[in-house]
Amino acid sequence: MNSISVSLESVDAGDGTRYDSIQISIDGLRLQEVVRDYELPLALREGHADIAGGYLGLDSAVCDHRAFFGEVDRDYGDESDKTALMKCACGCPGCWPLVARITVTDNSVIWSEFEQPHRGPEAAAGHWDYCDFGPFEFDLEDYTREFAKIKPKAQQAAP
Length: 159
Fold this sequence. Notes:
The structure is a single chain. The chain is α+β, with helices and mostly antiparallel strands. The protein has one domain. 15% of the residues lie in helices and 30% in strands. The strands form two sheets. A five-stranded antiparallel β-sheet has the order 4-5-6-7-8. It has a three-stranded antiparallel β-sheet with strand order 1-2-3. The longest helix has 15 residues. It starts with a strand and ends in an 11-residue tail after the last helix.
């Protein structure tokens, strides 16, 4: 099983305001860094190395915590029942999200089928294939404990 840690980090929203960004680490490495390493060859292929890993953590005040338990939040998810784990570095939801399928079992949570929706099979810039990225499987109790640390007060009753 993989380990997960979750925290909040104050980041600039791009308009002079700040928000609490959900920061996720898997096996001790920040998710942004792990994804950047994977995406770099794909971004280099199209001549835009700067877009590899170009993500920010989701805004904890508007991201429904239940999305991390497989309940797709349409503001941050997509039509294929995947959930955005991070959003574009520009700050706009849906602009450049990293999405994955989240499956909750009796004992674990599995992140699989990662995708950059703007680099699908029909993308003019070319397909970014994530078949060798993940899946990541987390112990359900550890996962729940980590996400409980960052839940907004309004969502404290959710899993």
